[in-house]
Design goal:
The protein is an alpha+beta fold. It contains five helices and 30 strands. The two termini are 50 Å apart.
Length: 559
């Protein structure tokens, strides 16, 4: 059974990963949460039985996910319609589903793969998910949550205390409580250090009890001190993970890359003596007789680094993300004059690092300079402006507003901040249960009808007569209205309407305008109607939804 918002239906096939036997599967499809748990269970079976066919299938599926379907934040699942994977390289930002539970399930799957193969590439994915798309699922106060974790917002996203389908809040709570169990792995005479944070780990290896004490400010700093405390002198291998991001590789695939040359290299010392860093499956192996008080020091350079996506990721062409160490950063409205979608971060523009103990519970921010594109007197102008980036996990803790992980690196990829038009002066109202009616005048001109930039809608209402209204503080003279319809054919249940018309308020009555032409319902275009001028205090769009379909509006402008 598939249950969402009170709806229950049976869905099998690709949605449930049962369209073919597991050992024949090559591509991750369907519901991303159940897939992550399914793959984790398959990895457990493979570990217990040694089934090579399972191992081969897991390898193929992992390569597909990490190579074509993983957000730079570690988020999983691009398609909200089925809470799951989309096609390869389809990674939209505003509509990114990246459900908190899917991110956790993928974290757990990678933890199994790590123990199966002892390859640090799985820990790289775990770390990216944990520090970014898991932590983003919970507020800094710990009492509000995200179900989806988008990579861009126009102000429509905010955490809530609970959900009708309340899987994410308890899932975040239990996985955060379990985090200490993922830091180390121990075999007969090997200890693997997988994650870094201040704390102590205890395990039995080489016939003795061993305590490892980490001292570090990771992820804010790249210096990690590990004191090794065996109960008695013992020979074993300490495998110290060298994160992929420190080896010039954001993720273990070609999905993302650093376009600039690395600054510095990881270094390792044992009792003050340098040890060569020659990673084997991502680990620096230190074999020796360990004595109580031996100290390993790992140094990981942490400059701010630009990231670009594979050319096949259409949404991120002409854009750049920024990360530092394991943390992905974003631009958020409170730090950048209220707007970020119009910012351009040019290649080569310097980036600096600054500690801000007073901000968001204490964070390291990345600062620089950006170009802000805006419209003035009908012309597009560019102004240099200070840029502040904050860790992605901490966004949406200061109210609703714009946010972007992927910033334009060239003007053509930015959204110009338009001058307020006549609609900006209006108060907005809409028929019952309309969602975000104010988005109809937010001046975010869409690229297409299925663009996830700000829009309003009437879903789940279908086939009904609805309305959207602008009320003005004083009478205005208008003679033109343009509508850009929201239509998510192929992904949702909104379509251009069956029909529409414009009404104006005359006294207490609503009267239709005298239109000079037809009311068009064209996708991916402005639908403009000219009419005999009217002087009024309010205008109304009357919208007849198609039978069995809902509808929405990206923008409604008037002149």
């Amino acid at each position: 059974p598939y249950e969402r918002e009170g709806e229950t239906r049976l869905l099998y096939g690709e949605y449930a990963q049962d369209d073919k036997p597991f050992v024949e599967q090559t591509t991750a499809v369907g519901h991303a949460v159940r897939a992550g748990y399914f793959y984790a269970a398959a990895a457990d079976v493979a570990a217990l039985t040694g089934n090579r066919d399972y191992l081969a299938a897991l390898g193929r599926l992992w390569a597909d996910v990490v190579g074509t379907k993983l957000y730079v934040t570690g988020g999983i699942g691009a398609a909200g319609a089925w809470e799951g994977y989309g096609p390869a390289y389809r990674l939209p930002n505003v509509s990114a589903y990246a459900e908190t539970c899917a991110n956790i399930a993928t974290f757990l799957w990678n933890s199994r793969m790590l123990r199966l193969e002892l390859d640090a590439k799985y820990a790289d994915v775990m770390e990216r998910i944990l520090y970014n798309s898991v932590l983003s699922g919970i507020s800094l106060s710990g009492d509000t949550f995200f179900y989806p974790n988008p990579l861009a917002s126009f102000g429509q996203h905010e955490r809530t205390p609970w959900f009708t389908c309340a899987c994410c809040p308890p899932n975040v709570a239990r996985v955060l409580a379990s985090v200490p169990g993922y830091f180390y792995a121990a075999a007969a005479d090997e200890v693997y250090v997988n994650l870094y944070a201040q704390g102590t780990g205890r395990m039995r290896v080489a016939g003795t009890e061993v305590e490892l004490v980490q001292s570090t400010d990771y992820p804010w700093k790249g210096e990690v001190r590990i004191e090794v405390r065996p109960a008695k002198v013992a020979a074993f291998t300490l495998a110290v993970r060298i994160p992929g991001w420190a080896l010039n590789r954001p993720v273990p695939s070609d999905l993302y890359a650093y376009p600039e040359a690395p600054q510095g290299a990881p270094s390792l010392k044992v009792n003050g003596q340098a040890v060569a860093v020659a990673p084997v499956k991502g680990y620096a192996l230190v074999r020796r007789e360990w004595r109580p008080g031996d100290v390993v020091e790992l140094s990981l350079p942490m400059p701010a680094r630009r990231v670009v996506a594979h050319e096949a990721v259409e949404e991120d062409r002409g854009r750049v993300a920024v990360e530092r160490g394991p943390l992905v950063y974003c631009a958020e409205w409170p730090d950048n004059d209220g707007r970020v979608s119009n910012l351009v971060l040019a290649d080569g523009s310097p980036l600096a690092v600054e500690t801000r103990p007073d901000l968001l519970g204490g964070v390291v921010v990345i600062t620089g300079e950006a170009e802000a594109l805006s419209e003035k007197a009908g012309q597009v102008v560019s102004e240099r402006r200070p840029l502040i980036l904050v860790p992605y996990y901490a966004w949406a803790n200061r109210g609703k507003g714009e946010m972007a992980v992927w910033l334009a690196r060239e003007p053509s990829a930015a959204r110009v901040a338009r001058e307020p038009g006549l609609a900006a002066k209006a108060a907005v109202a809409a028929s019952e249960k309309a969602v975000r009616p104010e988005a109809a005048k937010d001046q975010f001109e869409p690229d297409a009808s299925d663009d996830e930039a700000g829009y309003m809608h009437w879903w789940p209402k279908k086939g009904t007569l609805e309305w959207l209204e602008y009320a003005f503080p004083a009478p205005v003279r208008v003679s033109s209205a343009s509508v850009y319809w929201f239509d998510d054919t192929g992904g949702g249940e909104c379509r251009v309407p069956a029909s529409w018309r414009v009404l104006y308020k005359s006294g207490d009555a609503w009267l239709p305008v005298e239109a000079a032409g037809a009311y068009a319902t064209t996708r991916d275009a402005w639908n403009t109607v000219e009419f005999a001028p009217v002087r009024t205090t309010a205008l109304r769009l009357e919208v007849q939804l198609q039978k069995d379909w809902s509808a929405g509006v990206h923008e409604w402008t008037i002149k």
